[in-house]
Amino acid sequence: MKIVLAYSGGLDTSVALRWLKENHDAEVIAFCANLGQPEDFQAIREKALASGACKVIIEDLREEYLRDYVFPALRAGALYERRYTMAAPLGRPLIARHLVRIAHAEGAEAVAHGSTGKGNDQVRFYAGVVAHDPALRVLAPCAEWELKSRDEELAYAQRFGIPVSATADSPFSMDGSLWGTSTECGVIDDFRARLPRTAYQLTTDPQEAPDTPAHVAIGFERGVPVSLDGQRLAPMELVRRLTDLGGRHGVGRVDMVENSLMGIKNRALYESPAGAILHFAHRELEDLTIDCDTLHCKAELALKYSELVYRGQWWSPLRKALDAFVEASQAHVNGSIALRLYKGGIVVEGRETADALFDYGLTAHDGADRFDHPAGIGFAYVWSLPQRIRAKLRGPASEL
């Protein structure tokens, strides 16, 4: 039997590789997708081979990740439960698609991943694989094996000489990409616990951030970020610079209790400096350039879009249909938003766009005011007719 394992080099996938080899009498191909995580990929290759992999495939998917997954979600305004930029959920459908491609190329009968049975990722991987090839087996060692805790996983790794970075003293499960990181397990599992400094990967404690704020202007074309301070940049470089800048100033930390796909409330720590900055700037530009009805409808659909991503339904017809709406909504989201970053906060300093739906003569409260104020009286009369009729025929809405 031949299995392609989505391999990160962390504790779960390192143990899973050996476990699959031992329990399925299989040849295991380790596939590591480079999404911009801060890893030594040569070390990952050596670790996979030392753990029993018959072959290691490492592919650079960073540009595809940002272009085809992250930026569409950014344009949609998709933040799960209003805060989570979903770095991991956006990467899983991409990895799943390449798992299937590699399985076909290598003649594998199955693919595998390192997610637990109660985790969100096991559904994302499964759904992503079967959307492309329902005949492939999808194995989830962490949901099948006899190891009941991370301590037992660590003992298993030690028994087989598998090198892992997690220890009993630092048992965090950390996942990362260009778009952000997630940290789970250990004291994070307790919503009452105060998090140690070692739980953070990208961001400075806001209290220890520089006393001098940073300033940055982000340029957008059709809702896609294309420049910083007037300098046109490729997606990877733009996101990298914002990650470094925002992380240095403590921007992008999210410590939240979320509603997982399995119906469990769990605590997780997320860091996405670039995501926080770009979502903030994008919303500001949309407020200027999209009409009220479309903007409000888009906000409602953003919730659905984020749920689809989070719940592993990236390849659903609905997500593709929502992308068509988003594409139309972004036609005039062009311009630049200037921001100030200071000790974890983001503040608007300036807005520039040739596509603003903004008439100063209608909004001004000075001599430039050109609004027809008497017309407003008639508007108020017509707008309130339903309340007027109800009160006349059935009495006041409430007792005074």
Automatic annotation (TrEMBL):
GO molecular function, one term: argininosuccinate synthase activity
Annotated ranges, domain Arginosuccinate synthase-like N-terminal: 2-163
The protein's annotated pathway: Amino-acid biosynthesis; L-arginine biosynthesis; L-arginine from L-ornithine and carbamoyl phosphate: step 2/3
Residue positions binding L-aspartate: 116, 120-121
Binding site for ATP: 6-14, 33, 114
Keyword presence, ATP-binding: yes
Subcellular location field: Cytoplasm
Residues that coordinate or bind L-citrulline: 84, 120, 124, 173, 182, 258, 270
EC class: ligase
Catalytic activity: L-citrulline + L-aspartate + ATP = 2-(N(omega)-L-arginino)succinate + AMP + diphosphate + H(+)
Keywords carried by this UniProt record: Amino-acid biosynthesis, Arginine biosynthesis, ATP-binding, Cytoplasm, Ligase, Nucleotide-binding
A Pfam family per the record: Arginosuc_synth
Keyword rRNA processing part of the UniProt annotation: no
Catalytic activity, EC: 6.3.4.5
Subunit structure: Homotetramer.
NCBIfam families named in the record: argG, PRK00509.1
UniProt family annotation: Belongs to the argininosuccinate synthase family. Type 1 subfamily.
Protein name: Argininosuccinate synthase
